[in-house]
Amino acid sequence: MLEHYFKYPRVLRRLRGGGLGDELDCIATYLFESGYRYASAKIYLGRLARFGEVVSPAKPITQSLIDGFVAGRPTKASRIVARTTIVLARRVVPHRFEVLHREPDPHEPLLTSYADYLREVRGLAVKTREGQVLAARRVLAWWDRHHTSKPLSAMTGEHVLALVNHLMSLSSMDRTRAATGSYVRRFLRFLRWADLNDQDLARFVPRTPCYRLAHLPRQLVWEDIRKAIDAIDPATPTGSRDRAILLLLATTGIRNKELRSLVLEDIRWRDAQVRIRRTKARRDRSVPLTQEAGMALADYLLRARPDCGSRRVFLVHRPPVRPIDGSSVISRIVRSVLQQAGIALDGPAGAHLIRHSLATQLVSRRRPINEIADLLGHRSIDTTAIYVKVAVPQLAEVALPFPGDA
After folding, report:
1. Active site residue 352
2. Reported pTM
3. Which of 186, 255, 260, 305 is the catalytic position?
4. pLDDT tens, position by position, 228-250
């Protein structure tokens, strides 16, 4: 595959004669199939050829060898490129690199047992289990820091109060504090269930009041969302993708994960619907595909979507081309589009901000609350009730007259 990037036989012999040898062909194939630009691929391969000059073909590549090569680059920019190049090589040909041995975590068996408990006994989903195990890891880290020589069986209510005071000080939001308290209580119940502590320590964790309908949902006025959509340039591949994403968010209220999970078969063009699978409520639902959103989506799929073996609708365009897996990618796209349109933001911006704005817009148009709940995929209509609080004109109409008012 090196012949795709280099033509002269002498150059090819020099590349293959280095310490990386035939691995450079594997890396060149990866760069080509992952959609790296021709010029970028040549830069990476050139840097790896230089790295091959200090690598022995018969020995594994050590971290000290990597650090010495990177430190020998003349400028900061070249050092960054060198380190990025080696990370790329480690990803493609990991067998050439020395395996880094990390000190085993003494709590890993306990955390594994706790994860199994959450899955088999509590029946929690993967993402929920990850949050619970992370909280347990923080509890154990605090215990090691303050009571290194003591076993978990020595934990008392006094210790729990000090632990909770520390964890609660890490957040200023009531919702986060309430979740932290819930996670700690569950882990302490597990300790008792697993006979690691014979006390009911969970009762010492105070509950943080968190009233679900106490605050108004953050939202944008509909004119700002429309302005942001119109400001996107669909002539570029990323612009076409971002416009399709924003229109789907703004017309269907689809969640971040639901958007990332869409596959090509979920778009029902003849029915003008989008099938949403594996939702938060664990049931499939269909949402309408408006004409504008459908045209933007078709433009992206037919003209701008990179070639990729994945059936996912939305992809990361920067090489390596791959499905969008991280929720932060969608959030960055939404925030970038809003900022480019000159819309002031006073907090986090992501798919949920657009979802709240759509729900508020539908309430202001006097759409039935059960219709909004079905569109958003709420299992309980009480979840949708929070949006009624922002319908000030409608609430004013049902207000009773003040006693004695003429």
Report:
1. yes
2. 0.71
3. 255
4. 999 999 999 999 999 999 999 99
